[in-house]
């Protein structure tokens, strides 16, 4: 599944175009690297979203199969604690 579609389907952005804009602005990383909107995402990958309140890293547990509720979408990702240095 494309990164921009996944971010929208997981309800992390209100629209696919907002997700694509965040990717283009360099606010989204996959596995620690900046990614394009068309990058394919698989279960188990980690996505970092940088926003005004800081960065958060999420692990994709499974991909959405169809349109779903916000609660069901939130069950497909897990917040990953930042690693201590």
UniProtKB/TrEMBL annotation:
Every RNA-binding S4 domain range: 1-59
Domain of life: Bacteria
Keywords: RNA-binding
Record-linked SUPFAM superfamilies: Alpha-L RNA-binding motif
A GO molecular-function descriptor: RNA binding
Entry-linked Pfam families: S4 (PF01479)
Classification via SMART domains: S4
Name listed for the protein in its UniProt record: RNA-binding S4 domain-containing protein
